[in-house]
């Protein structure tokens, strides 16, 4: 279940030139994928580990992605846009949204970062009319818009030798009680309460299979996303307690049968109840080219937390795929990917972009958009139509990759850090006579190698574990606590024993003095400095209480010519750190 209710410039905007930076050891598409025993193989029989990204927010908006959790479903967001800007503008807004949100540059960039697959969360209403809007009951009106968008996406994937996995994210009527993930209107019959909705879903999959039957770059059909429904007990809103899941199994069997009437080549990907994880009553399998998907969020990254799926794989001789994961911090990302890949399980992350730091691309919140959010939350005045249109037009520009913040630390955690404990500079720090370093520009790498923080991830689905990762949710997605002020960013909430490492390249060997810009309301904090693991100078104490910044001096630091790993160590926490200035002694 999803968490609800910078490669060209360091921590800057995503540069177009970034798309030419090729990642090493990328597995590229080699013909149709196939379920071969407990692994996925390509047409040549080679094992394939899918490393994918989900395009959440493109065809289907969820409120939390754009800081409108209070609105919920996409149809409600659209209603609010129409209310402030007019119905005609709302229609134009969504047309432009589909053009701007995901383009060739997005797919090119993801390929260069290391992804070999894309998961497309489809909204059925882009492909066919809702049941209650069909001119003739029981018939299906096909809409070209969704198919054209899918065709274009497939073309971009082909150009990068990437697999495209089709995922029915919003099924006709909606497949669960978590309303935003399927844009469900609870006043209308759900997927499970309407045979007409189920028939439309089956027909849609047959139509898609007919269109893409001979496309080897289509990796598979993820036939239903995160069902969450109580079949046996209505009070089981999430579907986690179901023991039979008979309606879900039957629908997946019927969808598969329809697909196989026109397509015998593509993998069928199934998801259990309870947001993809409750498989009680689903087996035995009904198709020999099936992959079992599970979704993993906010729990520990050890074998015990995926053992039930490993057991399913072994008992049924079927491959596994972690079809959704993410919405966390970098340490969790590295550990989760290490865990599943060690068991030959591929993955798809959620998601490429939204208004937060824990994805590769961050959509920036402008002052105008914040004013609109305030109005929608009942905390501000309604903007004029002209003001609302200007704000929303600006948002349509901001969702383009070139206008977004690229979080290279997220990509580093998902690929490089999975395979090595080596650190690398987040920014180049070159020391001649003097060097200013922003404290937030510590090295990239794993926890305990590039930095040490006592709270590095969120385990929001693990009872009794209350951790938050980066408390300030700003600038970077590591566990290090970073907050913004009017002059930039600083590391705050520093605890005893925490530390940060900076790679400094010195033009010459010599002695240097260091100035630390610190603040502590309680007047607490003791700091040591190490260079390549050796303590340098004296431990210094924060003695000036208050919110104002003060300077601590550490003198006589010995640095060698070339690379120096400098560590700022909190012998005692309770202070904030903004900058580190290194000056040649004398």
From TrEMBL:
Keywords on record: Glycosidase, Hydrolase, Signal
InterPro entries reported for this sequence: CBM6 (IPR005084), Cellulose-bd_IV (IPR006584), Galactose-bd-like_sf (IPR008979), GH (IPR017853), Glyco_hydro_5 (IPR001547), Glycosyl_hydrolase_5 (IPR050386)
UniProt GO molecular function: beta-glucosidase activity; carbohydrate binding
Alphabetized CDD domains for the sequence: CBM6_cellulase-like (cd04080)
Location of the CBM6 domain: 468-583
Cellular component GO terms held in the UniProt record: cell surface; extracellular region
Family: Belongs to the glycosyl hydrolase 5 (cellulase A) family.
Name this polypeptide is given: Cellulase family glycosylhydrolase
Phylogenetic lineage: Bacteria, Pseudomonadati, Bacteroidota, Sphingobacteriia, Sphingobacteriales
């Amino acid at each position: 279940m999803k968490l609800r209710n910078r490669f060209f410039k360091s921590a800057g905007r995503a540069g177009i030139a970034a798309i030419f930076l090729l990642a090493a050891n990328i597995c590229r598409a080699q013909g149709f994928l196939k379920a071969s025993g407990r692994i996925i193989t390509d047409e040549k029989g080679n094992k394939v580990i899918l490393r994918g990204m989900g395009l959440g927010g493109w065809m289907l908006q969820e409120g939390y992605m754009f800081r409108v959790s209070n609105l919920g479903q996409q149809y409600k967001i659209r209603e609010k846009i129409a209310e402030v800007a007019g119905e005609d503008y709302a229609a134009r807004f969504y047309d432009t949204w589909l053009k701007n949100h995901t383009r060739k540059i997005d797919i090119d960039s993801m390929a260069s970062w290391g992804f070999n697959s894309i998961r497309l969360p489809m909204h059925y209403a882009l492909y066919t009319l809702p049941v209650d809007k069909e001119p003739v009951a029981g018939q299906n009106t096909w809409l070209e818009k969704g198919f054209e968008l899918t065709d274009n996406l497939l073309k971009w994937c082909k150009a990068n030798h990437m697999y495209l996995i089709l995922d029915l994210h919003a099924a006709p009527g909606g497949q669960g009680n978590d309303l935003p993930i399927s844009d469900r209107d609870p006043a209308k019959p759900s997927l499970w309460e309407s045979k007409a909705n189920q028939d439309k879903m089956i027909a849609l999959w047959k139509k898609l299979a007919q269109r893409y039957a001979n496309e080897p770059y289509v990796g598979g059909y993820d036939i239903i996303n995160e069902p969450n429904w109580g079949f046996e007990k209505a009070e089981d809103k999430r579907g986690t307690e179901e023991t039979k899941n008979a309606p879900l199994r039957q629908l997946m069997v019927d969808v598969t049968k329809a697909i196989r009437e026109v397509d015998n080549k593509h993998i069928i990907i199934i998801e259990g109840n309870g947001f993809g994880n409750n498989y009680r009553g689903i087996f035995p399998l009904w198709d020999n080219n099936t992959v079992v998907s599970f979704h993993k969020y906010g729990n520990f990254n050890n074998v015990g937390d995926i053992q039930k799926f490993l057991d399913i794989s072994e008992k049924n001789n079927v491959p596994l795929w972690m079809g959704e994961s993410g919405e966390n911090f970098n340490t969790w990302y590295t550990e989760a990917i290490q865990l599943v890949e060690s068991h030959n399980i591929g993955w798809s992350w959620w998601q490429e972009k939204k208004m937060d730091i824990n994805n590769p691309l961050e959509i920036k919140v402008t002052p105008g958009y914040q004013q609109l959010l305030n109005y929608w939350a009942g905390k501000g005045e309604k903007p004029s139509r002209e003001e609302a249109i200007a704000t929303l037009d600006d948002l349509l520009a901001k969702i383009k990759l070139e206008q977004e913040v690229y979080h290279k630390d997220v990509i580093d955690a998902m690929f490089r850090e999975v395979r090595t404990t080596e650190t690398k500079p987040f920014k180049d720090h070159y020391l001649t006579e003097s060097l200013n370093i922003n404290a937030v520009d510590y090295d990239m790498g794993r926890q305990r190698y590039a930095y040490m923080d006592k709270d590095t991830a969120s385990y929001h689905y693990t009872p009794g574990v209350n951790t938050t990762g980066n408390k300030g949710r700003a600038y970077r997605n590591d566990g290090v606590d970073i907050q913004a002020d009017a002059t930039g960013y600083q590391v705050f909430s520093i605890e005893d024993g925490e530390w940060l490492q900076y790679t400094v390249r010195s033009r010459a060997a010599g002695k240097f003095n260091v100035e630390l810009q610190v603040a502590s309301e309680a007047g607490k904090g003791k700091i040591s400095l190490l260079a390549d693991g050796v303590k340098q100078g004296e431990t210094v104490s924060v003695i000036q209480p208050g919110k104002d910044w003060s300077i601590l001096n550490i003198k006589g630091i010995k640095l060698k010519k070339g690379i120096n790993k400098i560590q700022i160590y909190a012998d005692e926490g309770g202070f904030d750190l903004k900058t580190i200035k290194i000056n040649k002694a004398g």
